[in-house]
Amino acid sequence: MINAMIFAAGLGTRLQHYTKNCPKALVSLNGKPLLEHCILKLKAFGVDRIVINVHHYADQIEAFLVSKDNFGMDIQISDERELLLDTGGAIKKAKSLFLPNAPILIYNVDILSSLNLKDLLVAHESKHALATLNLRDKNTNRHLCFNQEGLLCAWKNDATNEVKIVNESHLNSNAYSFSGIHIIDYKLLALIKEEGVFSIIDLYLRLAKDYPIAGYHDKSEIWMDLGKPEELLKAELLIKKLAKD
Prior knowledge:
By secondary structure, the chain is α/β, with parallel strands linked by helices. The protein folds into 2 domains: 1-114, Spore Coat Polysaccharide Biosynthesis Protein SpsA, Chain A (Alpha-Beta Complex), CATH 3.90.550; 127-220, no CATH class. It contains 7 helices and 14 strands. It has helices at 16-19, 34-45, 58-67, 86-93, 117-126, 200-207, 229-244; strands spanning 3-7, 28-29, 32-33, 49-54, 75-79, 104-108, 111-113, 131-136, 142-146, 152-157, 162-165, 174-184, 213-217, 223-225. The strands form 3 sheets. Strands 1, 4, 5, 6, 8, 9, 10, 11, 12 and 13 form a 10-stranded mixed β-sheet that branches. A two-stranded antiparallel ribbon has the order 2-3. Strands 7-14 form a two-stranded antiparallel ribbon. α4 packs across α6. The longest helix is centred in the C-terminal third of the chain and has 16 residues, at 229-244. The radius of gyration is 18 Å and the shape is globular.
């Protein structure tokens, strides 16, 4: 058994041209909403339950799922209409909606990726990790650092020189960008002490002091953050090209 959670509650501020009257999750990519692309990828992977958090234009997301009969899947809604909880808070709020004792695959709705999700799951299980983060080569100012054993040991922001250190193994570590795809063990939910609005990355950095938070270096061909109009256009062109090929 495996759970999945799609982060679909964001305001989509970078896509304002598209999100004035609809949620980011329903912005179209090649004739299908971003949310549909995510759901179909998770369905093909074989997840047993999907939890979707909602906030911005939540009613539209719910109506879309009804119109599609939930794609024939077990889909639960985590309602954040009253307060957008960030990634960590969203997972904590959704705790009761997950199938018990099954891992949880987390997927940002605005990510397009050719990652084989089975490979990520195998890597997660092989390291007996509390969580496994899918990583790409550096393309932002903010990086997660993993030591020679492949475990989280620091976070840094090159633009501000801010650093959050887990342990001294960061001195001989490799820096990557986080892809927005990760897997957590169900028992991680019981270790969340944070309240209200908080980032999952801050939670990972705290837990990494005592538990293995692993990284999986993803070298698959496609990974795109579709949170900007120009990236959405590039993705459209890429999908059309791949369809022709």
